[in-house]
Amino acid sequence: MRRFKIKKYQVIILLVGVLTISYSFKSKFFEVAKQLEIYTTLYKELNMYYVNEINPAEFTNKAIKNTLQDLDPYTNYYDEQEVEEARIRREGEYAGIGVSVYYDEKGITLREIYKGYEADKKGLKAGDIITKVDGQPLQNMEREELSQFLKGTPNSTVSIEIDRQGAKRTLTVKREKVVVNPVPFYDMIDEETGYIILTRFNEKASSEVKKAYKALKEKGMKKLIFDLRSNPGGSLLEAINISNFFLPKGSTIVSTRAKVKKWSNTYRASNNPLDLEMPIAVLVNGRSASASEIVSGALQDFDRAVVLGERSFGKGLVQRYRELNYGTQLKVTISKYYTPSGRCIQELDYANRDESGNVPKFSDGTVTAFKTKNGRTVYDGGGVQPDIKVGYSKKTEATEELIKSRAIFNFVTEYYYKNPSIASSKEYAFQDFKKFQEYLSKTDKSFKTKQEKMFLEAFESVDDEKLISREYQQIKKKLNQDKIDEISKNQDYLTDLIQNEVLTRYYFKEGSFENKLAQDKVISEALKVLKNNEQYAKILSGS
C-alpha cells in the first residue's frame, strides 16, 4: 500500500512538472504572438491614417534594428542587398573593379585600389571620388543605393566620372571577378623563418594558409611567424581547420555551449596535421577577434606556439545565419565558445548593461585561472593574453575617435599628391608626425572628439550666437589643442598607421607587408624568440 502511495505521489509531481513546462511554453509563445499582433495592428493603423506616406521597408527595417540594438552587436538583420554583401565577405569573391570604398554625400570615394584589377589597370587612385555612373549623379544618395553601382555581372562595362583633386575625368571600366585572398602576403624573413599573414577567415582561409605554408617549406622554412593581428575573424570551421594544421588529430580545438542543445558541440581536429614540431610564433593585437582567438587560444592551450603582441579583442560569441522571408537574413548569436583549457575569452557582458546602457567587462570582475597542457596558467574573461607583450602605448579616447574618422586617409591623400615618390617599401619610414598634427589642427574637418561634438551641439542650440561668438572661438581652440595633445600620446601607434597607409598608396598592400618584415617591432621580437631555442622552450614549459 505504501509503495502505491509513493508511485502515485511521483506521478502527481511529474504531471505538475509537465503542466508547468507546458504552461510556461504556451505562455511564452502567447506573449510573442501578442507582441507581433500589436506591431501589425499598429502598422496598419499608421499606414491607413498617418498624414504622410510611410515607406514600409524603411519603417520595418528601423523597427527591427531598434529591436536588436540592446542585444550584442553581432546579432544583425540583413535586407536583400546586405545579404549579398555578407555573402561576399564569407566567400571572398565578387564581380567589381577591384576597390574598397567609402560612401558619402559626394559619391563613392575609392579607399584602396587592389593591384592588378581593373581599377589599377585604368589608373584609378585612392582618394578619387566617383561622382557619376552611366551619367547618373551620385550626390546625396543613400549608402544602399550607392553600393549597387560598381557591382554587376563579370565582363559588363560601366561609364564612371571621377573627381581627382578637383579635376574631372570620364572613363569606361569593366567589371571582373575579384577574389579577396585572405593570405595577401607570405615570404621568408631569413634562411629558416617564414612569415604568413592571415587577414580574415573567409571560405578560402585554410586552403590559402596551407598553400603559403607549403610554398615556404619548399624554400627551407623551419620556423614560422603566423600573423593574426587585426584579423576580425569569420568562419568557425576555417579556424578549426587551421588549428588542425599544427595540432594532433583528435585534439579538442574549441567547444560551444548554446541554448539549443544541437548547437552545443565539441570540435576536434579531424585531419592529419601539417606539422607538430616546427616552432611557431602567433601575433595578435586588440583587433584580433573571434576565429583569430580560437586559433591563438588553441595553440596557446596546447603549448604549441608562443603568442606575442597585445591582448586580443575578446569575442567569445558564435553567430549563425538564419534565413528569413523574402531573401532577408538574421545573423544571430547562438552560443559561446571555449578554448581547449575551458576558457571563454568574451570581454563584454552584453546581458548586464547598466541603466545608462553601458556594457560591463568580464575582465573588470573576477577572472578564472585555467591550465595549458604543460601546466601554464591562463585566464578567461577578456581576450587571449599574449605570452610576451609587445605593443603600443595605451590608446586614448581621442585616438579611438581619430581612427574612426577619415582624417588619416585624407591626410595621406594630400601627402601622396605632394610627394611624387618616397623611399623603397622596405626602407620607407614616416617621419612627419608634426605635419600630421598641423593638418588635424588647421585643415581636417572629419575628426571630432566627443567633447567637441557636445560643445558644437550646445553652441548651435543658443538663440543668439553672436553673444558668445568670442567665447566660442576660445573654447573651440582649447578643445582642438586638447585633442592634438591627447592623440600625441599615441604617436608610436599612429605613426605606424600612417606609414602603412602611405605604403599602400605607393606600393599596394604588398609594400606595406614588405615594410613590416623589415621594421615591425612585434615581428622583430618574434624572430628573436624563435631564434633562441632555450627561451622558446622555457616559455612553453611554464618553468
From TrEMBL:
Keyword RNA-binding applies: no
UniProt family annotation: Belongs to the peptidase S41A family.
Family matches, as PROSITE patterns: PDZ (PS50106)
UniProt keywords, alphabetically: Hydrolase, Protease, Serine protease
Species annotation: Pseudotenacibaculum haliotis
Organism domain of life: Bacteria
Domain PDZ residue range list: 85-155
Record-given protein name: S41 family peptidase
SMART domains documented for this protein: PDZ, TSPc
InterPro entries in the cross-refs: ClpP/crotonase-like_dom_sf, PDZ, PDZ_sf, Peptidase_S41A, Tail-specific_protease
A Pfam family per the record: Peptidase_S41
NCBIfam families: prc (TIGR00225)
